[in-house]
Amino acid sequence: MLGHPSPHTRRRSEHPPFARILCVIDGTDASDAAIEQAIAIAGTDASIVFAASWYGKGSIDAGPDFDEERRDVVEHAVVRAHEAGAEACARYFRTARLAEALLGSIAQFDLVVVGAHRHSRAAGIVLSEIATQLVHRCALPVLVARDRPLSAGVVAATRALPADRAAVTAGTHIAARLGAELTIVHVPEHGDEQRRVELKSELANARALLGRSLDYAEFEGPPARSIVDVTEGDGAGLVVVGSEGKQGLPALRSVSERVAHLAPCSVLVIRNP
């Protein structure tokens, strides 16, 4: 269903969807994907701060050697961003609890990018992994990066509620910036026939921002599983989904958090206003 666009695909939305990006380098295998995708979204008219912890996951005694390796990765990321035309700098947090430090320093940013962890969602909660904590607690949009290139295709999920328009709009801006195909996925809920007006409005707005055609898909079934199914195979590089920001026990049923952990591609979680 999804494919690669023609190199002559017309782009209408060229302004940065996120002007100030915080990219977390935490030593995971997906840190390089986080760097690459932060640079791709930034383009030449946004800024990136590459952040890392001073102690990382190692002990304080092992810190100096570990720090040197992490600094090399961060400094190389800054160079890569500059070569791509983006403004970039590095920031180091002297802490063993990087997620907490990040959550206290995000007000100046529009987007947080972090590499995905290999563990399940339950293990991520128990181990307090950074990606899991950010998706659950961060008030900003969080991009959980995996190896697939974003240009492979963008999927934006909606329940046809006004609160989901931000996710559809963000997905549209990114697809336009990357010249990627855009698919909007609607998972109907029982009794939501009255939402058709909102759905038509979201689709019309996305087409206007994109300046070209898009794909539309509708699936019935559990929302998280339906969204993830669309991204299986080579179908997408990014899925964008809204979040109601549930905390505590209600968060166990969170569609956005489940998608962030189950999808084979990168996932951008947009906290609904």
Round the mean pLDDT to the nearest integer and report it. 82
Give the helix proportion (percent range): 25-40%
Overall body shape: globular
Which residue ranges are poorly predicted, with pLDDT under 50 across at least 5 consecutive positions?
1-10, 56-61, 121-127
Keywords:
10 strands; Rossmann fold; about 270 residues; alpha/beta; single chain; disordered N terminus; ten-stranded mixed beta sheet
Concise structural overview:
The chain is an alpha/beta fold and 273 residues long.
Describe this structure in words.
This protein has helices at 31-42, 63-83, 98-103, 121-127, 130-137, 165-178, 196-210, 223-231, 255-262; strands spanning 20-24, 47-53, 87-93, 111-115, 142-145, 154-158, 182-186, 215-218, 238-243, 266-271. By secondary structure, the protein is α/β, with parallel strands linked by helices. The protein has a ten-stranded mixed beta sheet with strand order 3-2-1-4-5-10-9-6-7-8, with helices on both faces. The protein is globular and about 55 Å long. Mean pLDDT is 82; it is low at 1-10, 56-61 and 121-127.
What order do the helices and strands come in, and which of them pair?
Layout: E1 20-24, H1 31-42, E2 47-53, H2 63-83, E3 87-93, H3 98-103, E4 111-115, H4 121-127, H5 130-137, E5 142-145, E6 154-158, H6 165-178, E7 182-186, H7 196-210, E8 215-218, H8 223-231, E9 238-243, H9 255-262, E10 266-271
Parallel strand pairs: 1-2, 1-4, 2-3, 4-5, 6-7, 6-9, 7-8, 9-10
Antiparallel strand pairs: 5-10
